[in-house]
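Saturday, quiet lab. Running sequence design on the structure tokens for the scaffold JK sent over.
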């Protein structure tokens, strides 16, 4: 193999970054709904910026309480996208949002579901001692809301043929991360709903997928007890390291684009290779050193 010329490699990467900042026009003429942006650290916020860069128009939506806590007006101004408040656990609210969207945009070509919350995690309740009313809230807001969004998008006729729907998930749907508590269950349900609805919408060429993103330093993520440990664990095991929110945004753009028109009912891992890795040499060495020091101290 020929050695890589570091100067050529640098120039190539610089050109790629320049192209990415300018966009490729992948979503030119497309319209959508983006749920879940809170502040400039949130993945949905970065996805909104990437969609705008690629030529899309969209509406932004979040729960009324989230709008009071976040800074969504700044994103609205930057992307020229209206903000429509919506409680995704309320049928009438979701149906109303779809009607407002139809009046503003007509039909939509993509939907981002980036919604998740757990009162049990917020209140530091252990999984085997959760509050069941809060548990229902977790499932309703974090997972059943996807079903509700798709149901009313169909009912109101706002979802165009060949549209693409992406919901953000996490590997806790398949593996147990104790501090993720009942959100492990919520993500598993979310992925199941995506597959079920994907099979039913395929006749119209509509795709429904979930993206299992690595731990990401967002306001929501860092609010989980033990997040730093989860982040470091994934970073050390994933061969490519943890992808950033902006890298996740770029990936989601490809799923909204026509380049992935035959990809549906999939849970797509965007985690730097974490899901298929065992353990890294670095972690083996660190663990060996740690346990050796512990044994020496006993």
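Result came back. Writing it out in full:
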């Amino acid at each position: 193999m020929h050695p890589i010329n570091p100067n050529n490699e640098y120039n190539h990467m610089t050109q790629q970054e320049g192209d990415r900042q300018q966009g490729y026009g992948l979503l030119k003429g497309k319209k959508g709904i983006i749920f879940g942006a809170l502040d400039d650290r949130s993945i949905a916020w970065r996805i909104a910026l990437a969609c705008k860069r690629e030529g899309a128009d969209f509406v932004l939506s979040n729960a009324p309480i989230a709008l009071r806590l976040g800074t969504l007006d700044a994103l609205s101004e930057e992307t020229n996208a209206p903000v429509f408040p919506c409680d995704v656990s309320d049928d009438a609210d979701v149906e109303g949002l779809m009607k407002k969207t139809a009046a503003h945009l007509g039909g939509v070509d993509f939907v981002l579901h980036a919604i998740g919350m757990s009162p049990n995690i917020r209140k530091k309740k252990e999984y085997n001692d959760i509050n069941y009313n809060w548990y229902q809230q977790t499932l309703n807001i974090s997972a059943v809301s996807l079903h509700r969004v798709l149901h009313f998008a169909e009912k109101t006729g706002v979802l165009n043929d060949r549209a693409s729907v992406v919901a953000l998930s996490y590997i806790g749907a398949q593996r147990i991360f104790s501090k993720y508590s009942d959100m492990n269950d919520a993500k598993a349900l979310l992925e199941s709903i995506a597959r079920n609805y994907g099979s039913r919408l395929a006749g119209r060429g509509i795709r429904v997928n979930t993206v299992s993103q690595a731990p990401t330093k967002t306001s929501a993520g860092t609010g989980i007890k033990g997040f730093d440990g989860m982040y470091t664990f994934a970073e050390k095991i994933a061969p490519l390291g943890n992808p950033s929110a902006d890298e996740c945004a770029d990936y989601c753009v490809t799923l909204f684009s026509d380049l992935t028109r035959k990809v549906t009912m999939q849970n797509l891992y965007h985690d730097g290779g974490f899901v298929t890795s065992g353990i890294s040499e670095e972690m083996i060495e660190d663990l060996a050193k740690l346990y050796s020091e512990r044994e020496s101290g006993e």
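Notes for JK: Residues 161 and 204 are 5 Å apart (CA to CA). The two ends are 50 Å apart (CA to CA). Ask whether to fix the surface positions before the next round.
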